[in-house]
Every structure is written in C-alpha cells, then in structure tokens.
Design brief:
The chain is an alpha/beta fold. The chain contains 7 helices and 4 strands; from the N terminus they run βαααβαβαβαα. The protein has helices at about 25-35, 40-55, 60-80, 100-105, 120-130, 150-155, 160-165; strands spanning about 5-10, 85-90, 110-115, 140-145. Helix 1 packs across helix 2 and helix 3 (about 60-80) runs parallel beside helix 4.
C-alpha cells in the first residue's frame, strides 16, 4: 500500500510504470475512445473505428454500459444505503467513475478499483492526484490495485482493499 492518505494505489509491489507501444491498439484505450475519452492513440482509434464498421452500435453500447453503471451506483448509494463498492475490471479512468457517482450522493462511500491490466493501473496512478485535490466532501477513501481473475472475497484480502471494503 502506498502511503497513508485516503487515496491509495497499490500493486502488491512497487515497480516502474509499464511501458507500452502506442502504435499497437489496446482494448482499454479503445473502450476509452468509444466513451469519448482522451486516453487513446491513433492505433486505438483506428481499431475502434474498425470495430464500429463491423458493429455500428458498439460505441453506443459502451456509453450505455457506462450510463447503466452510473445509474446503478447512484441508486445503491442514494437509495439502498450501500457505502462500499468494489469495481472489478475498471478500465481506464473516465467520466462518471464509481467513486465520483457514489461520493456525489454519499461522500463517505469507499471504492476499490481492481483491474488485471498494468496499463489501466498506470492510468489510475496518473489520475489519482486530481482526485486527491478534490474537496474532502467528494474525495474519500478511493484506491486502485492490480488483480487477476480473483473473486471479490479474495480481492478483499489484499492489503489495499482490506482497509476499504472489508
């Protein structure tokens, strides 16, 4: 676990950010492109456009999926009283992330993001400083970690998640 702040990024061990080839499309960045994000490159956009040619509604499906996530999290935080969220298969941070939606209606909400992709974790590391500068009423206890095909129970046992969700 890195540091003692409320916003932590853990990967089980400290290592350099992964290197990646921006000339090769990456699924997380293609999805970011479909969502209208900015964390993608020409190869990602080209691959995304090829997929759109084969499946014209794929970008709409990606945006609909993100909108559903926001509606579900908002309901769970505002109506059902849920305060702990585990987002598995997070993808590259975009708009309406789980912590943003949950903490907009319940600032005390805790969120753990887990993804098995080192590129996703590198993007999360880059994005956390902006989250840390957010007002304290909006930004509470958020972390990201790299995980494999683990169950929620196993994820809760990793040190980054244990203090947040278990």
């Amino acid at each position: 676990m890195a540091g003692n702040s409320d916003h932590q990024v853990a990967a089980g061990h400290r290592s350099k950010s992964p290197s990646f080839d921006t000339s090769v499309a990456h699924v997380a960045r293609v999805y970011d492109y479909w969502l209208g994000g900015k964390d993608n490159f020409a190869a990602d956009r080209a691959a995304g456009d090829q997929a759109i040619k084969a499946f014209p509604d794929i970008a709409l499906s990606a945006r609909s999926n993100r909108a559903f996530l926001a509606r579900a999290v908002r309901f769970l935080a505002a109506e059902a009283g849920i305060r702990q969220f585990l987002d598995i298969g997070t993808g590259i941070p975009s708009v309406n992330n789980t912590h943003e939606v949950a903490q907009s209606v319940a600032p005390e909400s805790r969120v753990v993001y887990v993804d098995n992709d080192p590129i996703v974790l590198a993007h999360a590391r880059r994005c956390w400083p902006a989250i840390q500068r957010a007002p304290p009423t909006i930004s509470t206890r958020t972390c990201a970690t790299r995980g494999r095909s683990w169950t929620a129970r196993r994820i809760c046992w990793i040190s980054a998640a244990r203090s947040l969700c278990c």
